[in-house]
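Data availability excerpt. The first of two example chains:
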Amino acid sequence: MDCWKEVKSSSWSYPTLMLCTYGFFSAMRPAESFLTPYLTGPDKNLTIEEVTNHVFPVWTYSYLVLLVPVFLITDYMRYKPIIILQGAGSLITWLMLVFAQGVLAMQLMEVFYGMFTATEIAYYAYIYSTVSADHYQKATSYCRSITLVASAVGAVLGQLLVSLAGLSYFYLSTISLASVSLAFFTSLLLPMPQKSMFFHRKGLSDTVSERADRERTPNASSTNKHPGHQEDKDSANPSTSPEYHPNTAKPQNHVLKVLVQLFKDMKECYSTKRLLYWSLWWALATAGFYQILNYVQVLWDHRAPSQSSAVYNGAVEAIATFLSSATSMAVGYMRINWNLSGELALGIFSAVNAGALFLMHLTANIWACYAGYLVFKACYMFLITIATFQIAVNLSMERYALMFGFNTFLALAIQTILTLVVVDSRGLGLDIVTQFLVYGCYFAVIAGIFLMRSIYILGSTKCRREKQSFPKEHLTLKEQGSEEFSYNQQCNVAVIASTLTTPDI
């Protein structure tokens, strides 16, 4: 009992524990690896065409529509209400999967699942508003690890119950419903944050203007060396706090200022050519990854129909999760100048992904399909980890969150185009085997873009080194200074990349 009181009184242990508990039960869904066999089986009795061309595309559309408003509202509402909304979306999704029938009901279910995935940003942003910066690394590690563990546990549990106990997919869905129900009730116990990244940082109206003043006035920081002390004084004297100041701007004006500042920040983020290319890969590859994740079970069911063959989807997902964790962790221990070789890695491993998808298209062997998926997911997770920390080391937490949100929005926009053209019955409505041929070509194009880009970077670097090898007396003083600055800048980036040992997945 005393131990529980100590945890609850801690500034970071209690919210981290509650968030990890929520994350575990939210991600521990044994039926998710068997969703396509469940929908096409006797419990729901949908055809594979209905699932592929009419049900699954709805998730992509609803996710895209909800992402932008959710991204802005999440920060304004200070995360907890959006986490509760996420829990409710997951709960309604599985209630409909257990009890509802028909194509229309399953399409509505996908809308709620889109709400669940769109609000996922609140789970990863919540911790930064409730714990001090000293505990960011631990809290982030715990919260991200627990979701991977829960996903693997759910997949293994589902596979064991199907293969050894002979349990039907309906009971797996019931277990998943119980798990997300616990997650929803856990979300109610989360403490309410008092601040957020954008809208609730210091005061209701002064946040953006203070930031602008600091950017305009170099010595502005010296006048505010003790912001925490100033906040204490303001809270002790309500008449001088921003909420009660007679000159305080209206809340809607503050919201407009924040939105303008967000737009300026985003413009600055994408003005850097290197970050622009990393973000381009992020958006293109993530769109393809989501598409594969959404339809790979349909391909598996086509290669080995669940009504007449043993299904090992859960085991494959568990192994894929483990490999993804291993490859992501390996990035932290690689001492490579990603500034120089990063885009070469993007091109090579994107080509490997294209090869894996072509294999899944060409082979009729289910085990080869499983192997192709394992390679594809492991390579993607390896690359997205590199892209994530390459962007993160160059940006503040607020700008990173903004860039992450916009990159995800671009990925969903691209995925929506893919879905409309390739999958949806209103477009080409291709069969699942032909779809994977298209996806293989899609990743081949991505690989081509970044291989050409990497050749250009390596060629430019070689020319620069040859120029540096000339005697210094043949260069003007201005050219010598420029060369030294460029070299020092490359070394600084290499040091930052090599010391980052906890990648953000």
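And the second chain:
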Amino acid sequence: MGLPHHSFSLIAGLLLLSVSVCFSKLTCEEGHSGPTYESMQAVFDLKPFRPAVNLSNPTIANISFTLYAVLGVNEKTQILSTFLWLRLYWHNEFLIWDPEECDGATRISLPVKHLWSPDIIVYEFVDDDVSQACPYVYVNHTGHIRWDRMLRLVSACNLEIFSFPFDVQNCTFTFGSYMHTIRDVRVSPALTFKEMSGNSKRYLEASGEWELVDILGETSILQFGIDEWDIITFWVVIKRRPVLYVVNLLIPSSFLMLIDILSFYLPPHSVDRASFKMTLILGYTVFLLIMNDLLPSTANGTPIIGIYFSVCLALMVISLLETVIITNVLHHSSMKYQEVPNWVRVVVLKHIANLICYRWPDDVQPPSVKPQNKTVDSSNDSSGPWIIEPAGQAPTEQPTSNPPTHSGASISAMPELSQICQYLGDLRAHLTSLQKESELQDQWCHVGYVLDFLLFRIYLLLITFYALVIISMWCVWISQS
């Protein structure tokens, strides 16, 4: 029974490996600055085998990278796109020659596809590498190989956007062999993590809204079942530049909130403050719709700036409701509301006014010391009805209570006099009603002004407290990051 074809290939490879063990150095010809083609071809034929004379010794792969660009951050899909300059070092024990025999050649370049290379991957890789491939490697006369390659890395990253736009992201790059365990391939950093961070900060380009804070790392062992893999974990810490979002989001929103606060200084009895506030709310809603594309969206949570905008909109609605209440108080009808209730006088016009230090107009006294106005003087009721004279005219004589009855002309004028007296009485009653209605309107106006002053102070306290909470949360988050 014959052996399969792949068995013959395996046996041939083992024979070639034994030959390479016997002849560990490449041969050179006179006049050629490098190993011969025949000796190199023998090494190329050993590509399927790990380049170690003693297979019990693992091949050590040294890794370093330079972060050249941060291409983008997708908060919704939790993906970070970066561009790296990756450099790999390993030792090929079959590629050794004597520089003195090879005309002083100490380094040559060879196609990487003809040599064995470690299967180093990034465990967080989630997309195909579309970067330009580098087909060659440098080989030193001692057998050390250096492979420089460009890597467009699309990796998964747990993005925290709560403190947006002052967020700091910490993404992980885990380098290790995909197939070879710790007995075959070991990995270690080619440079210190501080040197990698310094090089990345020096060459970082096209970073856009992100800047590199630091690169940290450590080596560890990944265990899965009975097998173990040697890995290097890099933590790439990047920070967002918040100027774009502060200028386009926070400052316009703060201006709209400032206008809403200043709208309380509009006189509520003569200006339709409610229409102004409704227009302001409409403008703020349009602003949020336009700027919605700048806000990150993720299923993990809502950024604090989204809460900030929602609360600002809610405060504007509360401000509108306050204006509606004050407008209703200021437009009380004297026929519907005859008198200001006594508890309203005590609570609003006395205690609340004193509490908020309400300043009464110069021509108005507080209700507690204001004397009761009397429209009609009871001591003069017997003298007849009031007659209001125009300015600049002499006062009209009051009619006597006992008109003469002996004159015929006076008797004939009695119906006309009674009509005049009735007209004057009606005029007096109408003026009294107007005066009473004016007094009631003034009282309700003062109630509205005091409530407006009180609610405005409460509104200012809410906004101040809310601003301090938002600023402190951002500051704490930035200091912790």
